[in-house]
Amino acid sequence: MANTSKPKLIMLLELPLSVDGISHIFTVESFNERLGDGYDQLGLPCSRIVSESWELRTIAIPTNDKNSILNVLRVSRGEKILEWRLSPDYPLQNFFCDRWQEIPVREGYWQIALTLTLTNYWEVNECLIRESDLTTTHPTIPLVLHYGSSQSYDARYLGERIRGGVDTRASFGMNAVDNSWSVTAVLSPEETKEVLTFLGERCGNSFQFNLPGETGKVYNCKEWRVDHLGDGWWNFSATFKKNNQPFKPTIALEIENLFDYYGDRESVVNAIAASMPDQQIDQFLQESLEWLNRYTREEYPLVMNPQYLIVNSFHTTLGRGGYFPPSAGPSEGQSVIARAACLAYQATGNTDWITLAVRTGDALLNNYFVVPIPQNWQPSDGIRVPHWLINIKEPFTSKGAASTTGDPLNMGHFDLVLNFVNGVSFIQHGSPDFGEFLANVYKVYDASDRLLEV
Description:
Elements: E1 2-3, E2 10-12, E3 17-30, E4 48-58, E5 61-62, H1 63-76, E6 81-84, E7 93-96, E8 100-106, E9 109-118, E10 122-123, E11 150-156, E12 162-163, E13 166-167, E14 176-187, H2 189-202, E15 207-208, E16 218-220, E17 223-230, E18 233-242, H3 249-254, H4 265-275, H5 278-294, E19 328-330, H6 331-348, H7 351-367, E20 389-391
Parallel strand pairs: 2-6
Antiparallel strand pairs: 1-10, 3-4, 3-17, 4-9, 5-9, 6-7, 7-9, 8-9, 11-14, 12-13, 14-18, 15-16, 16-18, 17-18, 19-20
Helix pairs in contact: 6-7
């Protein structure tokens, strides 16, 4: 992580705070919007930080003092740095403020409520692996269960949620019940510092939370806060979510330097090889080949047809929100399967892979080019670009009448003459008008319309 902060005007902010108007809030944030631990499991626990903010409220202050504080906030405009600390026991730190309120208390007196956010300027230029990512143990949080805490349960299910406009709950053997603790505790100054330090160092990673009569339960915490009670005492509150799939630290060890060798194919291959023995890779490739061969056929479901043309999707639902039908096959998919088969042959020496590479490559050359590539073609003769999408699985109805000239770009009628009786006319079914396939009528002109004259 590189600090890329720019020089900014620093303004000292002084606030006469109400005892019960002080809250310190912490949130684990990730630049990829997901975390490497907990239920939101991700293999790369990258670029996580703990964001800090303060929610503050002043005591009742006279109008002149209120205006002085508001003037500082207005001048800062949410972009200039404000230097502030809660008390002399705290170090001065830099904050920004982009939200505040003035609240009338009585005539001539006001309270100001505002949020100060600790400034952190980060640039993602490496994979940030923390020490807590590399350990195989889960330390115990220095906190016991207090009255006022509660445990909640939520049923989670995986699978298609929306079908036919309703929320469909279907079990695929992966449904689970999550539980979490809403924890609250009154802590002394020393206990507060210990708990906040612990959660800050974990930064979203797993830890043990010991309940009465139970040990070894693993949780994670992504948001926590403390509210000031006075005389240095704080009320701690947080949500501890139980981990069903704790993060595996070995994954981080294997790919620790991934960001450093993006584009270096050999290093990426070595990183994958370090986490997977050759025997397992060979098994995966053999099973993949068997699956491809099994579903290269005419009947559904299929992944390639007998001409070795690969389909857009194994399923039969619309792909890309209906952008093209599921029976279609894109040229990029055809290119990828041919290249992948070549790489699999290099890795295994299995000639079945090179046979598949030749067949899928020939299918690309023979079916995706409107004008066949001449046998003696050279790159210097010009670029040859394949059509990006062709039909693979089955016939489907397209908009526009069938072309009588064989030109796929000349679809629909532009000169169809119809006779109207009492304002009604019919387009006949079948050739050559194919009225049964009518999709859109854009314009009808009178046959004597001057716009039709050439």
